[in-house]
Amino acid sequence: MTLANTNKNVPVKPKKTWPRIINNSVFWPALSLFLLIIANGVFDPGFLTVEIKNGHLFGSLIDIANRASPIALLALGMTLVIATGGIDLSVGAVVAIAGATSAYLISIVQIESLLSIVAITLLVAGIAGAWNGLLVIYIGIQPIIATLMLMVAGRGVAQLITDGQVLTFNFPAFEFIGNGYLLGIPTPVIIVLIMYGLTAWLMKATSLGLFIASVGGNPKASHYLGLNEKFTKMFVYAFCGICAGLAGMILAADIKGADANNAGLWSELDAILAVVIGGTALIGGKFYLWSTLIGVLLLQTITTTILTNGIPAQFTFVIKSVVVVLVMLLLSAKFRQSVKGLLKKGAQDAD
Q: Fewer CB within 10 A of the end CB, N or C, for the chain?
């Protein structure tokens, strides 16, 4: 006796794509960014204008992408660190160290090779990141405490390098990193796109992305599976330091000097905010690189909107916090279900 397939004539219901779209980590941050840009365009039509002057792209949108570049690099490294269940509060201090190192090499040591300056600066920044990894992995200090140490001490190191002064320089080749243009696009934007593209490729083309998600999602299971947890965490902390080094060079090249007191000050908070807005959970596990970039652009657009509309600068953090809370609520499936239930109940009561 054979069993007939009783389901072969039953029509298969197509999967609804709309719920999948609104539950996607990219959707709500992207929608928020889109609506904010449109709102700016309504009140200021010139906001959406992008024009070419002297072979360079100019406009508010280009300025937003350019100004967001340092935070975008910090958020890139921060995404991978958070994905492993850690956090790095020292990226702002590493930005200051990197800027001070590059300025010192140019103005004091007087190195004339751009490649050498960039390589040494990134090496120093990478070592700073690896130091955090050493404290977390081998010493067993909690990430928030280990990185808080460098957050405090690192800015002091930067001040020692610059002798407490704003160290200025004149080196056009290095300045190109911060205020140059390539194919009409600001150099910092090009650097960000390259870094995000290479990192995304590395996460997909190799097993490193899987290792990071596994270590962050379930460290014990990863250990029993034979994954090298120490190498993975050391890599992400060192990589985070390198990203901060790039951001530090961009900022130093832009102002043609190193300000150890203010460079990267509190930038770690914006980086963490961008990562969270992008949907990466602070408990580790899954991470979303391109969503993080959208989060960075959203934060910078808020700042630009506040400044261009004549709102006092002291309201920047308050307004930014309100917008971030709204976006995070929209990202919460539980909150959306609660709102949906209230609306349905309201409609039933109205009937």
A: N
